[in-house]
Automatic annotation (TrEMBL):
Keywords: Coiled coil, Hydrogen ion transport, Ion transport, Transport. It comes from Sinocyclocheilus grahami. Belongs to the V-ATPase G subunit family. This is V-type proton ATPase subunit G. NCBIfam families: V_ATP_synt_G.
Amino acid sequence: MPPNGSCGLAQSRDCHQRTSVTRDQLTFPRPSPLREIQTSKRLHPQRFKYIPYRSMASQSQGIQQLLQAEKRAAEKVAEARKRKNRRLKQAKEEAQAEIEQYRLQREKEFKTKEAAALGSHGNSAVEVDKETIDKMSRIQSSYQQNKEAVLANLLKMVCDIKPEIHANYRVAG
């Protein structure tokens, strides 16, 4: 690297700011030995850094391994989500069953308390019905006994008219 801090590709600051090339990206792979022999007169070995030579097949194999690992990770995440959803569903069903059981228990307790409370009132309802029937029969018998007398008294008052001057009436004069 030159002492002025530039990347060596351009002399101006604008060029360095426009390109975002790092020093590591500027290294070149070592040429094959055959090419090095042919061009050994023109190349200076101090200019090149040694980068281990990898074939395209090994790089492709590494990428395939990464893709497979990513796929396995995605499958594990999907399986975990499925397990979580199953657990939530199961917990919800258990909660609903527990709520239903509690509701039935409380309903049963209410029915027993209601039966105990209405047991004493159930007899009074029967007594009220008996009293009502008894009163109705007395009213019917009283009606049958007094019907003729009441009708005779009503007709007598309507038919026998006695003209009298009312006590509040004054003669104008």
